[in-house]
Amino acid sequence: MNFWFAVFRQAGRNLRQTWTSQLMTFLTVSLSVLIFAFFYLIYTNMIGAGDRLSDDLRLIVYLEDDPGPEMQEQLRRKINNFDKTESIQFISKFKAYERFAEQLGEDSDVLTDMPKDFLPASIEVVPLKSLRGYNQIKLFSEYLATLPGSEKVQYGQEWVERFYYFTRLITIVVLLSGALLILTATFMVAYTIRLTIMGRHEELELLKLVGATNNYIRTPFLLEGIIQGFMGSILGLSALYVLFQWISLHFAGPGLLNLFNFTFFPPMVIVSILLGSIGLCTIGSFTSIQKFLKI
Amino acid sequence: MPKLVHNQDPIEPKDIPGNTMIEMIKVSRTYAPDIKALSDISFTVDTGELFFLIGRSGAGKTTLLKLICNMDTPSNGLIEVAGYNIHNLKGKKLAHLRQKIGVAYQDFKLLSDRTVAENIAISMEVSYKKPRAIKQRVRDLLEQLQLTDKHDALTGDLSRGEQQRITLARSVANSPRLILVDEPTGNLDAATTERVMDLLTRCNKAGATIVIATHDSSIYKDGNHRVMELRSGKIHSLSRNNR
Ligand SMILES: Nc1ncnc2c1ncn2[C@@H]1O[C@H](COP(=O)(O)OP(=O)(O)OP(=O)(O)O)[C@@H](O)[C@H]1O
Ligand SMILES: [Mg+2]
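Above: the input entities. Below: the structure tokens describing the complete assembly.
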């Protein structure tokens, strides 16, 4: 009780004495938390959107001709031999025509003069959920193209490809900003605490002489790191939340955000980011104490 | 939560009147390259004694006090304080022993950007005295030393004589068992000197062992104390003042 009172009093004095550099560190830590959390938020939302998109993923194999029942059986076996699937559905030329007519609705009379087999027959393949990585889909489609009677395989290649590369890019940006966060949190905090220790050299010497225990001298600096990490991440995350609300408000309605179904972090992630930055700042202050506060 | 109650007091068990508070056996301190600040010093100070250390400038008084409070280590010899070989103590034990030793340094060691009250409080804060008790003690001491109006002044702005008294106040504030005072009256007039000595005498009466290093013969010539004179690092004389 008395110990913690003394520790908080001492930490308060530290903050007061070097408040300019403390403020700089605090702002730097919050900014790095903001940058990291911003990209991480985009990343998680991309992943979510990717999941939703891949729910609708199907590969369509256009065939030269309607396959007979034995042929269907053979094709089904060949497809399943390569990869397990959720479903395989054969669409005959006639069925394709019916579907198309249905889609046209009232305008379907334009089709009256067309032969009922003018659309190609096809197979709709829905791959297993667990096998929907970009490369797996690509390999799968390449294999489907080699099936007997197959003319062309479609699955919205371009879109999938772009999405895939964008996700990769965001992953790299998240990693980089994460590294930035680690560097700023540990080094900036280590630096300010070193500054404080240097600035209070006289007092720390005196404290030793009048019989201050190691804990009495060291704990306030450790507490300072914890406070920096806590306050910094709180401010960073709050700023991100405000930004998020602003974006949601101004880009509401149908559009990109709705496609992405933009959401904020769940509480678990918020707590993790908080604890992470506190941990990093504590490491920063600890290294400075070890190096510059020899007792 | 770490247990930090200072229950195991290293200085208390052997700190009984009649026992030895300070014991030095064949102590030397040589500074590089070849300055013999102290050589072959052996003497004891009893618990509860008021002991004077005199000698010309450069005789080794400050060096001797620094050895006693473990600010410096001897090149040779053994020093025991309250029965503990103080140079073998480490960590918490050393800290607790130091809380029981008050030192008024010749160079003051005041924090010039802190107020008088904060400077005096420091020695009580490290042993977790209650803030209210600290406040009261600081006021009492300032009153005894006629510095009440300087309570909130920065020590850097004070005169040397005032700083000297603040240092003394800090050394006695935590009611230590052993008080080492280096040149307490160097910058003071006769009346103020008397106040300072009154304060120290009171601490001594309350049971504290006190060692005073001084040039000022006016403070040790009266009374029944032992006076040890150093000359160029050696004990020149050690006698009881019996006038
Ligand atoms: N850190 C040091 N390095 C080198 N020499 C030192 C050191 N400290 C003290 N000395 C020398 O040791 C001798 C004793 O010094 P000390 O400070 O103990 O004298 P003193 O009796 O306190 O003098 P004064 O009355 O002027 O305070 C002096 O010659 C001094 O120059
Ligand atoms: Mg001296």
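Note for the figure: Chain B touches chain A through 28 residues (CB under 8 Å).
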